[in-house]
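Deliverable D4.2, example record:
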Amino acid sequence: MIILDTHIWLWWLLGDGNLSTSERDALDRKAAKKELTISWVSVWETEMLERKGRIELKPDFRSWIFAATDPQIVTMLPADIDLVVAQRLLPDAFHGDPADRLITASSLLSGYPLATHDRRIQQSECCKIWQPD
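Output generated by the structure prediction step:
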């Protein structure tokens, strides 16, 4: 299992962004084995991006998000008290973006590596970063 950061999830599903062919192929293989997870935070971030016009989801947000979170595609990790507490494991210097904090804490809590291109998260060395097979 791996956790997808929001941008990785969107790039993979929308077919754009900076995913390499090897990353895209590896994510497709993981999806076929039902080995992809996302944090509930990614759903919230996606709604914010769509509402601000930064991404376009067809035919509409509601239809797209229900299809994109289908359990046949990804498992969604819930929000709970353990997740909030897990944020306390992040170093004081970890940046303050709430979504990045919660997604990174989800990786720590679950033990799953995080697929991300976010340099701040990668350089923090707070969680294991996924590398394609």
